[in-house]
């Protein structure tokens, strides 16, 4: 394996503290941006699958938090801090579920972001369904594709 | 940047609240209207469906016939107007033309034979008529409304599904509104996703005309009170009529089969009832998701396509329709999956059809039988007829459903298996009724026992020669010679007092 | 960003290349081993499946019987070892125990009656034996290997599917390797996704034992050369035997039905053949996707669960399995969809079963008939038997398939409809053969015509009283009294020379 487990833990704890710090004090531009990117999220083996799929999707050029955090402002900082702290905590101390499912908060945020980016073409579409992904089910993590194409042991 | 919030579009049109003419909507919704006019294309078929209005019982080449055909349709509907003419459906813009031209309605007489109820699913004029005549409307003379109609302006259209002022979806169908009420539901409280199917449920459903003993005569009713599946509907029809015929007391009866003397039920287009608990319906995928995909007509705003047709007509169409949900699959793959289901459904549909024919023939032979009969002969004939009624109803459920099984593969195949079982039971009872004396006449290929009737119409039934051309046709009465009195929205023959 | 491709980790174990003992893998893969041991839980059922090894023909309560039962199994397999004992499958860790305990193998004699081929899908010992005996192995005496076996260490295990040194997936099954070759395929070139189903295709497939006239005796073969569907397989079997029986010349024959004297085919667990062109198989969803979901045993890293069982045993299990792809649906909804298909399949399965029984009875009566016979009597009996063979094979296809239809709803229901048609044709021919003299005896409910046989075993067949207890059992020969000689991996009776 690539990273010795102990070293990983230390690294993650540090990151966690960084995130929590960011949440409390308001973030410097740099760390705010860096912690949006696939490179950061993908530093966690648990996130490999979603990074992998996102990187193969039409949304490859986006950063994760273009979808997964509210757009800008204090709301974004708070959301990230909370989500980040939870991710780090779960990863370090908790049991991660067998299949990670999105929280309702994530679903709402993501859907807002879809609409925000695609507003112009979606004036008439809006809430035909509860969420955009009711139709665009593969966006962006290919959730209906065979497991072998996206998921693997040890992650 | 300042972008508008996306939300359900609600409009303020300048139209009158009771506007029903399609043309009135054109100016404000030119793009929608453009897709609406695409319904005029009736030239393309898919593997099992499509829009060319061929005669469904004829096997052969377009335009009159097709490679997938059901050769016994005229036999199975013997004695009922459906045996005169029944074609593949085409676009909504033809609804009125086809209704006013079809031979099912008696155009050779001042009496149409079928009630004004038939207009229910063909024109937004219904809004006016229901307002004006209320429950008196249904039993009024069909012909008396022909001349009021403009074939284009009054065919199924905007006002059928939309409030003309806000363009919100609405239900204008009396039977749907009432069926929902009886189930304790109200479309006014339905979600947008539900409305995207309910507007179709106004028409793409099984219906019947109320027996006058039980309420307003000829009023259209959706038989959903016991559930929407064929078994429920069969049960439902058991006490919706006033016949006193032994063994069928109180049953609803569409017509009595001329050859086997069986009180029959006709099933029409149960798309909604088939879809609702299938893989897509259960998952909340609406009719409009597949039959009204979003399109970008001006390269910018998306609108709902108003070209209601098969999504399988081209790879692009599949991509834009199915592809939004099944983005990981190719159009060829998706089409292949539909055809996978349709092939199996079609094969069983034909088996069920053949057995239904055999059942009628078995009862025909048993009724004509002159040898020694068992004591329970009469009961056996009734039992056989009851199974014919049921078997054919189940066959018709899938035959009349327009997706050849795709809307619900498991239900389609189950329904056909049951149809076959009921029809076989009918054959068994009928053979028993003659102590098996008639059994040898039922051996072998059905095509050799009963020939498919290829030609039949109101005009032909005016000719004795025609009635002599097939043993089954002999059971029909000769009609008096007559010429067309009505066609489309015009009188074409002399007025008779 | 740099994330690794989704490739299974490759290991360097310290195991020997020919290691086959399960225990040897335990130390290096304790978490995997822990999930593997979960296969020992044989206490839970789901609605239509599960792991309690009840007798599939008994209707009633667990542990011996179940609410969904097929009461005529013993009748339909009359004369074949399957009629002695057939239970619901349970976990892989029981494979060897159940094989060595089952009454299908003659444990009352030094000759098992069935060949060593039976070991093929029960133990990784096969790797050694095939190496050592090559094609001589198959026809060797089954009993002679019992004492070599450890029930735990040698049951289906790691070496069956993995290279012990790299843990790469591999195929150890001779018939699968060869079947693929005959189709121009090679598992060594298969994708990871394909391998995740192919390892299961080693066993969860229909198979037969080669007729010695056509190659190494009793060698297991997968009948896929003409295609994997029931119609293809029926065709395939037409020239894979050496019988000279009129009407069946050259047919492969598993056994001759004792009551109707029909040369039969037995179908076993065609999971792979059912799945491959169903909604999931066609979409590339592998067996392992649903039966080996990832688990985080240490709360962190994922491993493939090696507890092969129904995914429907709990809401959590559905969530972690189906939820990998259907995250938008609740476990209850997903389970409901499975049951929706299973209900329909099960109902048709029972109808097909009853008709198969009726067909045997019809031929039994026709063969016993002493009145005047038509000229073509013999041909009619042959035709009837051929339809029995086909109808029952199609019924067995779905009966033996372990998902009660879910792996491919449309194919399951189609296959059952066809089964019913073939069996009905058999009844028709048989009645014809007696000029319908026997027809009245076939009227009414099948339960009143032929009673289900509830108890039957090798031991019982040693008793005349038992053979007298049901008309059908009378067609069986009385077996000489004998006591158990073998059970599990031990001799339990005296050695006879
Ligand atoms: Ca009807
Ligand atoms: Ca077999």
UniProtKB/TrEMBL annotation, chain A:
GO biological process assignments: anaerobic respiration; denitrification pathway
Homology family: Belongs to the NapC/NirT/NrfH family.
Co-factor: note: Binds 4 heme groups per subunit.
Molecular functions (GO terms): electron transfer activity; heme binding; metal ion binding
GO CC term (a single one): plasma membrane
Pfam families referenced in this protein's UniProt entry, alphabetically: Cytochrom_NNT (PF03264)
UniProt: heme 2 binding residues: 64, 68, 141
SUPFAM superfamilies assigned to the protein according to its UniProt record, in alphabetical order: Multiheme cytochromes
Protein's name according to its UniProt entry: Cytochrome c-type protein
Cell location: Cell membrane
Amino acids binding heme 4: 132, 135-136
Organism, scientific name: Desulfobotulus alkaliphilus
Entry superkingdom: Bacteria
Positions of heme 1 binding: 41, 44, 47, 87
Source organism phylogeny: Bacteria, Pseudomonadati, Thermodesulfobacteriota, Desulfobacteria, Desulfobacterales
Gene3D superfamilies noted in UniProt: Di-heme elbow motif domain
Binding residues for heme 3: 59, 114, 117-118
Membrane topology note: Single-pass membrane protein
Cofactor(s) annotated in UniProt: heme
Entries under PANTHER family matching the protein: CYTOCHROME C-TYPE PROTEIN, CYTOCHROME C-TYPE PROTEIN NAPC
InterPro entries documented for this protein: Cytochrome_c-type_ET, Multihaem_cyt_sf, NapC/NirT/NrfH, NapC/NirT_cyt_c_N, NapC/NirT_cytc_sf
Key words of the record: Cell membrane, Electron transport, Heme, Iron, Membrane, Metal-binding, Transmembrane, Transmembrane helix, Transport
The record's account of how the chain is modified after translation: Binds 4 heme groups per subunit.
Residues given in the record as a menaquinol binding sites: 65, 67, 80, 87
Domain NapC/NirT cytochrome c N-terminal: 9-138
